[in-house]
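ok so i was messing around last nite and threw this chain in just to see what happens. nothing serious, just curious
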Amino acid sequence: MGKHPRSPSYLFFSVVALSFLSLTALLIHKVDNFASQTKTVVGHNLEPTPWHFFPPKNFTDESRQALAFKIIQCAYLTCRYATANDAVASEDQLKERQRLLFSQTPETCPEFFKFIYRDLEPWAETRISNYHIMQAKQHAAFRVVIVEGRLYVDLYYACVQSRLMFTVWGLLQLLKRYPGMVPDVDMMFDCMDKPTIDRNEHASFPLPLFRYCTTEAHFDIPFPDWSFWGWPETNVEAWDEQFKDIKHGSQAQSWVQKIPRAFWKGNPDVEAPIRLELMNCNHPRKWGAQIIRQNWTEEAKSGFEQSKLSNQCTHRYKIYAEGYAWSVSLKYILSCGSLPLLISPQYEDFFSRGLIPKLNYWPVSPIDLCRSIKFAVDWGNTNPSEAEAIGRRGQQLMESISMDRVYDYMFHLISEYAKLQDFKPIPPPSAQEVCEESLLCLAEPKQKEFLRKAAASISPNPPCSLAKRPSSNFFNTWIEQKKKIIELTKQMETKNAVRRMM
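result:
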């Protein structure tokens, strides 16, 4: 007997199965291809900034397919799902909440908040156009657009470590803290250290670019840095918690019990001549200073246990030396309550404009650096009450800059900046909406832990009250007074040096 022919049903199911497998393979290919072009706040598919190169991030913990599906889920689906399921307050509810907030008498903002006006002065007359934004793009790592309380990010380059993620998280917390109050705005950001918008080069057409620091020679607009919400790579907690730990550590010894020398621990190998010069001052008897080279590789292996900031307040004097540019270490040094010795800073962040020489820090000259440090240490040991008082005022300044005030600074800076824009902010087609859920979706376990600890809640109080724009002489007078005090301190050093030579 001959073989029975294959039944049509068998062939049909074979074709269906083959078609299904082909479609599945095609779908996986399409998903993988789409994901490989999707940029994320974690750094997927982003190259390092060309103006400050660093090793690109390596994402090898997950399979290619798992990573592709994760990127698509987190970047495109999570915020839509979260928005659909959240109980969004109605416009009437938001207005009622704002009415209740503003029926309260707000606290007065710290004096240095006035520098918001100086930072935005270049655009006070010309205002900020969409063309300004587009021109600033060539200097930016990412763009933030806020529309009706929702945040969109357009990504251009990766940022070192988790700076981008924690900066965006901070903006999301601001929106949560003051719902319905943050205006629509369009901002370009860079996340590296050095300012780039030179006042001479861009004098005829200043470009608005936010970053973590600026100088008197740049138009860059200073914004609170990422570490206020935590720095997981170095085990540094969010600011309120970290300050509390440092202050507690500083109280372990009285001023008399603290080591009567100056202390610095850090990395000198960051293209920072002043830090290399500082290494020559490591002589407790001759220069009154203990200078320690930080081995980042070894410290990382031990989880930075030997670099806990709360354990570094055992000396009466703490040195601040700028690195490649500004350094986040400034706020931690000031928090110790030791007498801060600042080596002629060239860069300023948003709060350092509140520093006044001999009131809450001691100015150290970069010229004859070791001798200048020794003079400060000798002066402090001869005048212990005055030295302790200066250190205490530095600590009190940082205590006054709680996260409440950080959010208030962000709120007022963004609000004043938004007033200058002469166009309606609209997210570009390449921008993605980012929400808390999507950011946490992309974050690694340790990052999630830090982010959640830094989560804000709705503020029961209105933002502090920002003073009116000061007179045109205010900032010049402020700066000149500080320069005068620094010059008088240098004269004290010179007289002391001459007296020793006689």
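not much to say yet. Residues 8-35 form the longest helix (28 residues).
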